[in-house]
Amino acid sequence: MIDLLVVGGGPAGLVAARVAAECGREVLLVERDPAIGLPVRCGEGVGSKGLEEFLDPQNGAAPWISRRITRVEFRSPSGAVVRVGHGDVGYVLDRSRFEPVLAEQAVAGGASIRVGAEVTGLERDGAIWVARINGDERVRARIVIGADGVESMVGRWAGIDTRVRAKDMESCAQVLLDDVDVDPETIVLHFGREIAPGGYAWIFPKGPRSANVGLGVVALRARRNAMAYLDDYIGTAFPTGRRGSRTVGGVVVQTTVRSSVADGVMLCGDAAHMINPLSGAGIVNAMKAGRLAAETAVEAIAEGDTSARRLGAYHDRWMHVLGHDHERFYRVKEALGKFDDQFFDSLACSVNAIPEDKRTLRRIFYAALFQQPALLPVIFRYFA
Amino acid sequence: MNRPAPRATQIAIVDAAVCDECGLCMPLCPPGAITMHRAGLAIDAVTCTGCRKCIDPCPVGALAMVER
């Protein structure tokens, strides 16, 4: 029997496996796909501060980084441009290399990793979980960490409600475009009902002339599927761009599941809806959750109590670190969703009235509120 | 008296040639009728209630309703 079975080899699972193994626990991580890091199903943008808690980006020179980002550009529906940030904004990762580095660290810490290993069932045997791997093989573990993504089955098997309402699901599509004119240090977020209803389009540079170009839509507000919206957007914004690999996926823009634990089970990352519901960002959240889950698992095993009650400490810690912030962001998202394109166009004008080097979030908030009293309910919901 | 729920007249099906296996539809399915396997996405025709919640969100339009 092993101490910890981690299901899923993304950022959440790999960090959880490393942290628990470094504490001397016997850890097995299983990944369904034949390789760690592939396929990439992600825009790959990440903030510098959160990332640096886990890996050193070497100011952008690390081989798992595609671009260092110094600026964010918001485009309003009519095309008005608002630029924010100078200096350290973040990075666009190369996740096909990023996850393998996390995996190396986990293995160096003492964890075992198996790829091409799919958990096909999970059953309780007393205080132990018995996982079926690839149909007939069985692994017994004291604790199972479900880091198995938006499609989480671990949560379902453990009786955790991971269902999502349609209004809280962003349907995303992305194409890697080559031969395009992009600012290689700027990420672009483009809003508008015709471009990406309920979400936004993004341009994340991957190289001097290449970028992840994608968008997310909320199906209830959309007339077509996400890929159809993306085809239109690329046709308008990058008519001569050369299309490389394409990917699609779901981003849950909700708050954390009500309980991310069950007896002997903890859910991390996308599996527990630990995504910033305003931005759709989830990589750093997933790593932070993986670390918290592993720390709680190590304590619980040492105490010989892996009950849901004991593991609930993980959920509480997560809510304290980020979960409650996500609840505030969710209220803002709901409030902003009531405004139309015209509102965002005039908001862009208000923000542009602030000198670029003075655009802190607080100043934007106040200036925007001063000129857009309609924002009051948004700010009220943020602090409510 | 317990009567079985009336069976849906329409159910969801997946076009495996179009499906990208992203798993987006799985948490949207109220009865959990959608599962992922090595062979691809599977929708359990017995569990599916025909609610349509999975149809429009599919980013590539791989899901459709058919008469049972």
- Any idea what the radius of gyration of chain B is? 12 Å
Number of helices of chain B: 0
In CATH, the topology of the largest domain in chain A is named FAD/NAD(P)-binding domain
Q: What is the helix/strand order of chain B?
A: EEEE
Please give a structural write-up.
The complex is a heterodimer of chains A (384) and B (68). Chain A is an alpha/beta fold. Chain A folds into 3 domains: 2-66 and 91-164 and 256-324, 3-Layer(bba) Sandwich (FAD/NAD(P)-binding domain); 81-89 and 166-252, 2-Layer Sandwich (D-Amino Acid Oxidase, Chain A, domain 2), CATH 3.30.9.10; 335-383, no CATH class. Chain A has helices at 11-22, 48-52, 95-108, 154-157, 226-237, 283-303, 308-336, 341-352, 361-371, 376-383; strands at residues 2-7, 27-31, 45-47, 65-69, 71-75, 81-84, 90-93, 112-115, 119-125, 128-133, 137-146, 169-178, 186-190, 201-207, 210-218, 242-252, 261-262, 265-267. In chain A, the strands form 3 sheets. In chain A, strands 1, 2, 8, 9, 10, 11, 17 and 18 form an 8-stranded mixed beta sheet that branches. A 7-stranded mixed beta sheet of chain A has the order 6-5-13-14-15-12-16. In chain A, strands 3-7-4 form a 3-stranded antiparallel beta sheet. The radius of gyration of chain A is 21 Å and the shape is globular. The relative contact order of chain A is 0.16. Chain B is mainly β and 68 residues long. Chain B has one domain: Alpha-Beta Plaits, CATH 3.30.70. In chain B, 0% of the residues lie in helices and 26% in strands. Chain B is built from no helices and 4 strands. The radius of gyration of chain B is 12 Å and the shape is globular. The chains are: A alpha/beta (384), B mainly beta (68). The interface between A and B is medium-sized, with 28 and 21 residues.
Describe this protein with a few key phrases.
heterodimer; A: 384 residues; FAD/NAD(P)-binding domain; D-Amino Acid Oxidase, Chain A, domain 2; 3 domains; 33% helix; 28% strand; B: 68 residues; mainly beta; Alpha-Beta Plaits
